[in-house]
Amino acid sequence: MATLHSLFHSAREYLNPVLKSSKFKETGVLTPEEFVLAGDFLVYKCPTWAWAAGDPAKHRDYLPSDKQYLVTRNVPCLQRVSDYSGAGETEGGDMDVEGEGDAWVATHKDRKVKVGQDDGGDIDDMDDDEVQVPIRRHNDDDDASLGVDHVAAGLGGVNLNDDRYHRHHHHYHGASGGVEAQEGSDTAPADMDDIPDMDDIPDMEEEDDPAALPTAATTTTTSRAGATSSSSGAARTDNILRTRTYDVSMTYDKYYQTPRIWLFGYDENRRPLTAAQIFEDISQDHAQKTVTIEPHPHEQVSMASIHPCKHANVMKRIIDRMEEGEEGKELRVDRYLLLFLKFVASVLPTIEHYINGCLTRNGILEQPRV
Amino acid sequence: MESQDDTATNSLLQFDPLESAVDPTFWHALSKKKIEVYRLSDAQQDISAQYQVPAPHPTRNAAAATAAAATEASARAPKNVPAARLSFSARSFDDVSVAAATASCTSPGVLRNTNTIEEFKQLDKTNALKEVAERIWADMNSGAAISNPSLLTRFLLVTFADLKKYRFYYWFAFPALLPEEPIRLSRAVPMADVYSGAQISALRESWAAKGGALPFFLLSETNEALGVHELREWHNVMQDGKPVTVGFVDPSSQPANPGWPLRNFLILLRVRWGVTAARVICFRESTLPRDPCSIICDVVLPGAASPRGAACPKAVGWEKNSSGKLGPRMADLGPLMDPAQLADTAV
């Protein structure tokens, strides 16, 4: 369910003229040309990032057709924020923004939202699978009237996916006693590989291939009933690290004139993450304020996005501090996205290392004293 | 799959399988193709996918350490490294694959989209895999795979798109031709144990200078440098009596195992040039200078070389599902693709 907010945002973005002259030092914003410049530099310095053309139907004229947005795929995310024992959420190292409380207006409300709302009548028994997801939404002046419901609906839609499947799963396999044990436990996605009626695929004897390194769960097909997977993953004996991964993309937001981050996550078995699961990987500081599920501006899917309304402010602070720290040195605009990613790292602390690993190790930020 | 106990001298060379990484844009593009182009046709369609050197990962730092243990050829303790992935996106349907990340290789593939779940189930998978394997074999024999080595990585993707429910059933195979006798590994070590920093930097530069996308290549060696050459230069590069050194872009992060794409390359070496032993550089470097993370596998290719033009060897390569069984997967993308949820697709 698209939020009214994102509709509104689209309209505003459409109406807002393209930024022409460079203002990144004064206000922290970028022109599209600067976005491309900084993107080229990012791709050069950090080859796991690549330019993407996106869906031609969503092409933006003010960006080159083959450089519509930036993307890096399969970024591992080893642990949840709640398990993260790193430097602490707001202590993201040298790029930490002073007085972050100022940068992020504290007009947000705590809400408990029931995930899993109506999405068709065939799932009335949903209630025992409800999850309480703390959601606070950004309360920008122009969306104050929009209720938490929109976000909730969006999340419900996403989350329902798995639960609905879960239900079907019960439906198909219930009689065999396969999955009963799972009842009411949590919202762990059902094992999608237990596709209903897929058992009778002919002609596939197990391949005898000793030269294949054993990778997938060679152990417990027995626990199939438990539909274990997503959270535990403990029983695995393979040598592949089963971890969540993210496809992270960066678009240019014409209205806010800043980059904007989009996340699409997969669980340990490469199934799309629910919104609730994605929230587990976002710093509570930020998840509660600024992350929503919206249509990706260049692809035909919805993704979690960090709302960009404060990005310019934050970037302005970071730039100021960098230049203060290194007198006489100027920050080049093509470094903008590297700095931006450092900031993003404070929002996504558990995938920070991978986004930035290739940056810091090469000393690209040659003015580290901030 | 547990059997590899002949630790005597050479162990069985085991390859790290590829895992399909299908992003949601791929499914959207497939739906569109199905509606606008394929319609009811279940003809084979050409698509592409990408793989690349592994991204930076903490376990890579540990790779050097664990590789020490791995030199005991049988070391098989869990290494906890990321899966090697073959990525599919909306761009997989583009005629010309757009430049993806550097250090990224494009694999050609065959899509067989069925019209019903029944057809999906009933499709003769064994034969479908065999057909792709035969194309790979033909490309080896004709020499097409020498001028365009990405043909060695041809894959197969069988799908059924349930457009009413936005559910996508799929099964991916990366066919690997089997050798007459199993390939042996005499040792696997980090590249830095064998080559100097200067040689490794030269290798990176030379590979980047070739366009940064050469999936398989030959190597020449001097005391100062390693040089990358295309396969078609075989007779200029390889000298009689000198060991054969080759390389490939390796998506695997395993400290003592090469990635899956090497399999068909070794078959090509055996069949085309009669190679019986080779040093393989499993190239995992980005174009950036950083800690070297490539490994070297010294391999032995026993058995009689099957004559060129012989019948296509048996092939394997179906992807296992998340329960470790040979079986299809399913992606349910209703919430992400339902038009009602995407009403405001910006401007």
From TrEMBL, chain A:
One of its GO terms (cellular component) is cytosol. It is found in: Cytoplasm. GO terms for biological process: autophagosome assembly; autophagy of mitochondrion; glycophagy; nucleophagy; protein transport. Signal peptide: none annotated. Keywords: Autophagy, Cytoplasm, Protein transport, Transport, Ubl conjugation pathway. Residues 168-236 are annotated as: Disordered. Residues 191-210 have a biased composition (Acidic residues). Its main location: cytoplasm. InterPro entries: Atg3/Atg10. The keyword Transport applies. Pfam families: Autophagy_act_C. Residues 211-236 have a biased composition (Low complexity). GO terms for molecular function: Atg8-family ligase activity. Belongs to the ATG3 family. This is Autophagy-related protein 3. It comes from Geranomyces variabilis. The gene is ATG3.
